[in-house]
Design brief:
This protein has 264 residues and is α/β, with parallel strands linked by helices. The protein contains nine helices and 14 strands. The strands form two sheets. Strands 5-4-3-2-1-12-13-14 form an eight-stranded mixed beta sheet, sandwiched between helices. A six-stranded mixed beta sheet has the order 8-7-6-9-11-10. A hairpin with a 4-residue loop joins strand 4 and strand 5. The protein is globular and about 50 Å long.
Length: 264
C-alpha cells in the first residue's frame, strides 16, 4: 500500500458493508466518511442495481463521486444518481444455452433504472422498481447489462457441474455463494475491469488501491487491488484469494480495516 493509505477504495455491499436486509452500522459509515474527508475515492462496487444501491450511498453519506453497480456493468455518477455508462450485451444466446442445460431455470434481465423483466419469480433484490413477467422471447429481445438465472429445484453443486458445459461467445458468468443462481454479463466485464477503467480516469497510482468484499463476484476486484481484504463470512475460496481476512460483517470488518488510516 502506498504511503498515506489507499486513495481508491472499492467496497462491496451485501455481506461486506452490511448484512443483507440490515442498515450500514454507524461505525462503518463513520469510517467511510472519514476516508472521504481525507480525500480518498470511496467507490461502492456491487452486484446490486442502481435502484437498490442508492439507499446504501445515502446511508454512507456519499453525495458525489462514483459507484459501480451490476458487477461493474453500470457506472454511476453519485451526485446525479444516474448511470454514466452501461455495458450491455445480447442475452439471447445465454438464455438459449442455459435453457438447454437447465430447462427449469427462471431468468431475469435488468432494465437499468427501471427494474426487471423476468420469466418467473425468484429470490433476490427485486423490492424496488418494476418487475414485469414476460416470455423467453420478450426477455431476450433487448440488450441488458445483466442476466440473472435461478434454478428453483436445483442445487448449487449440480448447477456448477452442468455449467462446465456452458459455452456462450461474448458473455461470461459468475455463480452465487449460497444457492443455485448465476449472473451473466458481457465478456470481460467485472468489478475489477470497471475499477481499472476508473483508476486510470482518476489518475490514482495502482499501488494505492484497496478492495474489500466477500463474494465470488469480488475475485477480479481482489486481483485488481494492491491490497485485497476478504470478510470472515466469505467462502473459503474467496478468503484464500485475499491478502488478508478481516472480521465478519456483523463485527464491522470494513471499519476495522479503514480505521488503520482514517479515524472518525
Amino acid at each position: 500500500m502506498a504511503d498515506g493509505g489507499p486513495q481508491l477504495i472499492a467496497l462491496d455491499v451485501d455481506g461486506t458493508l452490511l448484512a443483507t436486509g440490515s442498515p450500514v452500522s454507524e461505525r462503518v459509515a463513520a469510517a467511510v466518511r472519514a476516508a472521504v474527508e481525507a480525500g480518498a475515492h470511496v467507490v461502492v462496487t456491487t452486484g446490486r442495481t442502481v435502484l437498490t444501491t442508492r439507499s446504501v450511498l445515502a446511508e454512507l453519506g456519499l453525495v458525489e463521486g462514483h459507484a459501480l453497480c451490476s458487477n461493474g456493468a453500470v457506472h454511476v455518477d453519485v451526485a446525479k444518481g444516474q448511470p454514466l455508462t452501461v455495458q450491455d450485451f445480447d442475452p439471447a444466446p445465454a438464455v438459449l444455452a442455459l435453457r438447454a442445460l437447465i430447462p427449469e431455470m427462471i431468468f431475469a434481465v435488468e432494465k437499468v433504472g427501471v427494474g426487471y423483466w423476468a420469466t418467473g419469480y425468484s429470490p433476490g433484490e427485486y423490492s424496488l422498481g418494476d418487475y414485469l413477467l414476460v416470455d423467453h422471447s420478450a426477455l431476450s429481445s433487448e440488450p441488458t447489462p445483466r442476466l440473472n438465472g435461478w434454478w428453483p429445484e436445483g442445487s448449487l453443486e449440480e448447477m456448477l457441474r452442468l455449467l462446465h458445459e456452458l459455452q456462450v461467445p461474448g458473455a461470461s458468468w459468475v455463480h452465487g455463494e449460497f444457492g443455485p443462481w448465476l449472473t451473466v454479463s458481457r465478456q470481460g466485464v467485472s468489478k475489477g475491469w470497471a475499477l481499472e477503467r476508473l483508476r486510470l480516469a482518476l489518475d490514482v497510482p495502482s499501488d494505492a488501491t484497496l478492495a474489500i468484499g466477500d463474494g465470488y463476484n469480488d475475485r477480479e476486484m481482489f486481483h485488481w487491488a494492491a491490497h485485497s481484504v476478504a470478510m470472515a463470512n466469505a467462502p473459503a475460496a474467496v478468503r484464500d484469494l485475499a491478502d488478508e481476512v478481516t472480521g465478519n460483517v456483523l463485527e464491522d470488518g470494513v471499519a476495522t480495516v479503514l480505521e488503520r488510516w482514517f479515524r472518525p
